[in-house]
Specification:
By secondary structure, the chain is of the alpha+beta class. About 40% of the residues lie in helices and about 10% in strands. It contains 13 helices and four strands. It has a four-stranded antiparallel sheet with strand order 1-2-4-3, sandwiched between helices. The longest helix has 24 residues, at about 145-170. It is globular, with a radius of gyration of 21 Å.
């Protein structure tokens, strides 16, 4: 039987600064900023680490210890892979000049320059294409959209495993979806062969201690969790509550306060809001994907 959580009053700035070692109540409050979340029936360090996730955009210049990237790749390869096709790869970029050129694609996001390493996760169908050619075996299914879905999902699952492993080692990360602003330029920079697509980047390094990064609140489970069949994906009350919570977080982080609802709708208003990614089908075709 579960019971409602009853949180003690704490300074708002301390809410989002909860860490993996804090108790479930503190972490759930940081993630949702509401009372009444069900008391967890089970809890462990892994769940605490997951709930304590936050994006890090300020890094120390310290290089990663030897073997760190290999360890994170092993964590990534331990994620599920559809039919064990393993249709993903990753390029580790540490050269400052190359990172700077990649940062240009993203609108010059400074954390790409600060982080000692940028991992670029790839949907990789080239490996199977080359295997088929070497064995004189048909690989026509590589040309179908479903197989590209498989590769993108594989890359995302692997990356999230790598993120959790990195955070357990005291490293910080932030995803860089803006590499998709110009996939062809990224492919050229990284020397990608046909049928390989840069899904996103991942900054990796030790967080700068002078910059306090908080846990960003998420939508209420009332909007996300459905049982048996889909219920209400939108309701005004929880969205309004979330708008208030995200602005509280933004205030704590000293960044402009913008309601989630306004920001999200602006992001999907039209092709002009996609930062060049409205031409994704053309980019995929240029990179060798048939998309049947």
């Amino acid at each position: 039987m579960t019971a409602a959580l009853h949180f003690v009053d704490v300074p708002s700035s301390a809410i989002s600064e909860a860490s993996a070692g804090d108790d479930p109540k503190a972490l759930l409050r940081a993630r949702y900023r509401t009372e009444g979340q069900p008391e967890p029936a089970h809890w462990n360090e892994v769940i605490g680490q997951i709930l304590a996730h936050r994006s890090v955009r300020s890094y120390k210049p310290d290089p990663l210890p030897e073997g760190t990237i290999e360890t994170l790749v092993a964590a990534g390869q331990s994620a599920a892979s559809s039919s064990n096709l393993q249709t993903w790869s990753v390029v580790a970029v540490s050269d400052p000049a190359r990172k700077a050129r990649l940062a240009e694609v993203t609108g010059n996001q400074k954390h790409i320059l600060q982080a000692p390493t940028l991992l670029v996760f790839l949907a990789d169908l080239n490996r199977l294409d080359a295997l088929g050619a070497a064995r004189d075996h048909a690989v026509d299914a590589l040309d179908y959209l479903e197989t590209l879905f498989v590769a993108i999902i594989d890359a995302a699952l692997a990356a999230q495993n790598a993120v959790l492993a990195a955070e357990s080692l005291g490293l910080g990360t932030v995803y860089i979806g803006a590499l998709r602003n110009d996939p062809e330029r990224v492919a050229k920079e990284l020397g990608l062969p046909p049928k390989v697509f840069p899904v996103f980047g991942l900054c990796l390094g030790y967080p700068a201690p002078e910059v306090v990064t908080g846990i960003k609140p998420r939508l209420s489970p009332a909007l996300v969790l459905h049982r048996e069949q889909y219920g209400a994906g939108y309701a005004p009350e929880p969205v309004a509550a979330y708008d208030a919570a995200i602005q509280d977080f933004q205030s704590e982080q000293r960044i402009p306060q913008v309601p989630w609802s306004r920001q999200a709708l602006a992001r999907v208003a039209g092709p002009q809001s996609l930062s060049g990614r409205d031409r994704m089908r053309d980019a995929l075709t240029a990179l060798g994907f048939a998309l049947r």
